[in-house]
Specification:
The chain contains 5 helices and 19 strands. It is an alpha+beta fold and 358 residues long.
Length: 358
C-alpha cells in the first residue's frame, strides 16, 4: 500500500482546486455579451414632427378639356382656284396676315368696266351740272319756262345718282377683290390646312384653321350643389396635363342635362406650353374641415403601399396609411395616424430613393 505524506496531499488538493476554478471560469465566459444586455435598434436619421389637427380646405374636382379662347375656320366669299397657301400647320400668324390667295384675274376685267362706268357717270354729271346752271340763269331772266328749269334740275339729280351708283359698284368690287386674299382674323397658331394650291375654293368652305392659344378656356361639368360656392371672376386651382395653374372663373351655365352645370374658367398661356385639347381638372372650393396632414417628404412607398415612419418608445416603425387630398407639398391622411403621434421626415440618404416621397 502506497502512502502519501500529508504535505504532498495538501499540495495536490490545492492544484486540483485551482484547475477546477479555471474550468469553471472558462465555462462562465462562453455566454455572449448581447444576451446579457439587449442592443437597441438604430433610429432613422431625420426630423421629427408631432401630428396635430390642421384646417384643410375641401374641394370638388371635375375633369374636362382645354379649348382655345378663339378659333376660326377661315374661308372666302369668293369662288375660284387657290393659287397659294402661305402657311404651314404650327405656324404662328399675326392679325391680317395673308394665309391663302385665290385666283381673281376675272375680276380685273370687271374692274376696268367699273372704272369706265365711273368715268362716264362723272362726264354726265358735269354736263348735267352745266345744263342745270344755264337753265337756272335763263329762268331767273324769264327766258326759260318753269318746266325747262325743272327738267334741267331733274337731269342733274339723275346724273348725281348715276355717279353714286358707279362709285358704289367700285366699292363693292374692291370688297369682292379683297376676298381673294384670305387673312388671319387674329393672332394665333395655324392648326390645320384644309386646302392646297389648285384646290377649288367655294364660298364658306374652310381653308385654314387658326387658334388663339395665348389663353385657354377650361370647361368642366359639375352638380348644382358644387357650383353654389363659385362666383364669376373667382380664382381657383386647376391642372392641365399635370401642370398646376390658377384659373379665373369665366361663367357658369346650365348644362342642359339633369341638375348639372357647365363651368368655364380661363387660364393664361402666353408661352403656348399648354395645348388645346389637353385633359384638365378644376378644383372647386367647398369649405374647410380638420384633419391630419403630413409633408410629402415624410412619405415612403413600397409598391402600391404608402406609409410613414412613426417614432414611439424610442423606436421607429413603418406604418401604412391612406391618403386623401394632396397639394404640392402636403398630403391629407384619412386613416392610419392619430394626433399626438410623432413621425420622422427621413433624410434623403436614410431610405431608398425609390421609396422616399410620393
Amino acid at each position: 500500500m502506497t502512502t502519501i505524506s500529508s504535505r504532498r496531499a495538501s499540495a495536490l488538493l490545492l492544484a486540483g482546486l485551482a484547475t477546477s476554478s479555471l474550468v469553471l471560469g472558462a465555462c462562465g465566459s462562453s455566454t455572449p455579451d448581447h444576451e446579457k444586455t439587449a442592443a437597441k435598434p438604430a433610429l432613422v436619421s431625420g426630423t421629427t414632427l408631432t401630428l396635430a389637427d390642421t384646417t384643410i380646405a375641401t374641394t370638388y374636382e371635375a375633369s374636362g378639356v382645354a379649348e382655345p379662347l378663339q378659333q376660326a375656320m377661315v374661308s372666302t366669299k369668293l369662288m375660284g382656284t387657290v393659287t397659294a397657301v402661305t402657311v404651314q400647320e404650327g405656324d404662328a400668324v399675326r392679325t391680317g396676315q395673308v394665309l391663302v390667295q385665290i385666283d381673281a384675274r376675272d375680276l380685273t376685267a370687271k374692274a376696268n368696266q367699273v372704272a369706265a362706268s365711273i368715268a362716264d357717270a362723272e362726264a354726265m354729271q358735269r354736263e348735267a351740272t352745266a345744263h342745270a346752271a344755264r337753265f337756272a340763269a335763263l329762268y331767273n331772266d324769264s327766258a326759260a319756262t318753269k318746266a325747262q328749269y325743272d327738267a334741267a334740275q331733274t337731269g342733274l339729280a339723275r346724273a348725281n345718282a348715276g355717279l353714286q351708283a358707279a362709285r358704289a359698284g367700285a366699292s363693292e368690287l374692291d370688297a369682292v377683290r379683297s376676298y381673294a386674299s384670305v387673312r388671319a382674323p387674329f393672332a394665333g397658331i395655324v392648326t390645320m390646312r384644309h386646302a392646297d394650291p389648285g384646290t377649288f375654293a367655294a364660298p364658306g368652305a374652310p381653308l385654314v384653321t387658326v387658334q388663339d392659344v395665348s389663353s385657354l378656356r377650361l370647361t368642366v361639368t359639375a352638380p348644382a350643389n358644387v357650383i353654389r360656392a363659385l362666383t364669376r371672376g373667382q380664382q381657383i386651382a386647376a391642372t392641365v396635363d399635370g401642370r398646376s395653374v390658377q384659373a379665373k372663373v369665366e361663367g357658369i351655365v346650365p348644362a342642359g342635362a339633369g341638375n348639372l352645370y357647365t363651368v368655364n374658367a380661363i387660364i393664361a398661356n402666353r408661352d403656348g406650353a399648354m395645348r388645346a385639347g389637353s385633359a384638365v381638372t378644376l378644383s372647386m372650393p367647398q369649405g374647410t374641415t380638420t384633419g391630419i396632414v403630413v409633408p410629402l417628404a415624410a412619405l415612403v412607398r413600397d409598391g402600391d403601399l404608402v406609409g410613414v415612419i412613426v417614432r414611439a418608445n424610442g423606436a421607429d416603425d413603418r406604418r401604412w396609411i391612406r391618403l386623401g387630398t394632396m397639394t404640392a407639398t402636403h398630403a391629407e391622411v384619412t386613416a392610419g395616424l392619430t394626433t399626438g403621434e410623432v413621425i420622422v421626415i427621413p433624410d434623403a440618404a436614410t431610405v431608398p430613393a425609390s421609396k422616399a416621397g410620393v
